[in-house]
């Protein structure tokens, strides 16, 4: 509710995944105010949820901002939006991650300026969506071939064409259903941004991450690699582009390297 109070949007929608029983719907309808639209689904992973959301956004005919449910945006985000709305997409990092010096974001970013908001100066960076470097083929999971960067909040002034969504969805659905959750939604969004012709995504700092600690730990590397390999294979089939073959090769190599993470003698 606080994010809605800060941003003051014309309309607000809450998306809730893993809803498959009428009792769940009844509970959600009781706790979420009537002024907020609720979209239920049983997509079972963030990526299929994002595809459904992006399709829905086409019906709104306006700019869209998506905020992760465990984030509270800062009061200055409305002013920041006014400064950055000329870009097709921009994203937001939380202040807690910024204080920890997020090198995995900074290594793929370049500083493009500063924002002066309410007397405070915030750095403005641009994150490179597609890593086509040779070293990127061999770097680990924190440097995926496609990545949209930080995503505590993401503003979309331009949406992907329905044909892009349809093809990406087919590629995603070609991944074993038990593996899809190992593909981060930042990767899916990076792929979509790349297909929209976007090379860099501006980002700055304007949220607080309310860590819930429910994630059990890092996923097994071989399973993550297998998920990405299957997704990349689906993208090659749908688009036939060399960068998706490169993405497939990266995770073929990763599977070979990480067999030991699941096979123990």
Describe this structure in words.
This protein has 265 residues and is of the alpha+beta class. It is 39% helix and 20% strand. The strands form two sheets. Strands 3, 4, 5, 6, 7, 8 and 9 form a seven-stranded mixed sheet that branches. Strands 1-2 form a two-stranded parallel sheet. Helix 2 links the parallel strand 1 and strand 2.
| Count of alpha and pi helical runs | 10
Computed Rg = 19 Å
Tally of individual domains: 1
- Average pLDDT reading: 93
Low-confidence parts lasting 5 or more residues at pLDDT below 50? none
Main sheet attributes: strand count, strand direction, barrel closure = 7 strands, mixed
Q: What gross morphology would you assign?
A: globular
Helical content (DSSP H or I, runs of 4+): 25-40%
- Amino-to-carboxy terminus distance: 51 Å
The tally of strands reads 9
Q: Assign the structural class, choosing from mainly alpha, mainly beta, alpha/beta, alpha+beta, or little secondary structure.
A: alpha+beta
């Amino acid at each position: 509710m606080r994010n809605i109070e800060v941003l003051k949007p014309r309309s607000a929608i809450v998306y809730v995944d893993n809803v498959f029983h009428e009792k769940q719907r009844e509970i959600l309808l009781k706790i979420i105010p009537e002024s907020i639209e609720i979209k239920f689904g049983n997509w079972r992973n963030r990526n299929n949820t994002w595809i459904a959301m992006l399709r829905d956004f086409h019906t709104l005919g306006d700019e869209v901002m998506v905020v992760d449910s465990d984030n509270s945006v800062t009061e200055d985000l409305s002013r920041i939006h006014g400064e950055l709305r000329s870009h097709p997409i921009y994203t937001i990092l939380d202040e807690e991650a910024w204080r920890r010096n997020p090198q995995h974001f900074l290594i793929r970013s370049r500083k493009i300026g500063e924002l002066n908001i309410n007397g405070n100066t915030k750095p403005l960076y641009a994150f490179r969506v597609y890593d086509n470097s040779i070293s990127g083929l061999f770097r680990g999971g924190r440097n995926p071939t496609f990545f949209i960067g930080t995503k505590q909040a993401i503003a979309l002034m331009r949406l992907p064409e329905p044909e892009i969504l349809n093809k990406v969805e087919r590629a995603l659905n070609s991944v074993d259903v038990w593996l899809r959750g190992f593909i981060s939604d930042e990767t899916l969004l990076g792929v979509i941004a790349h297909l929209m012709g976007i090379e860099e995504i501006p980002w700055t700092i304007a949220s607080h991450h309310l860590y819930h600690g429910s994630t059990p730990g890092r996923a097994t590397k071989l399973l993550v690699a297998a998920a990405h390999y299957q997704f990349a294979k689906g993208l090659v089939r749908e688009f036939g582009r060399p960068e998706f073959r490169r993405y497939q090769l990266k995770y073929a190599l990763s599977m070979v390297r990480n067999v030991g993470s699941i096979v123990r003698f």
